[in-house]
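The protein record filed below.
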Amino acid sequence: MLGSGGRGTIAQPAPTDGHEGILGRGRSEAVALVLQGRAVSTEVSWQEFPRRRDGLLHALDGGLWLHRFTLDDRPMAHLVSSDRERLIAWGRAVGLDARWLQYKPLRDPRTGTRVAAWHWDLWGDLLPPR
């Protein structure tokens, strides 16, 4: 798991694409980050969904799904996708080491089969604001 550790803070979340209506009320954002005193912009975007199933399907189709939760009263999130390279690109943009990416196959509710998927654990400065 990854903590805040000064790896990056979110400076400017902004809407980036028109996917909000495709699977419901999902939200997409790109982030500008401050890493070690320098601004970094990334075009890799993620989406949140009010229904877990919609987020899961988005991730299984190669999108980035931000899934928020709490652990021991600490707000956290998983950034999930079946597209490992997209996750690595996002992680690289915020200063994460690719060795910290976690593999977790997910069951596709459309077919019942397990699909290779990965996620980042996010909290602290890496957790995007709501």
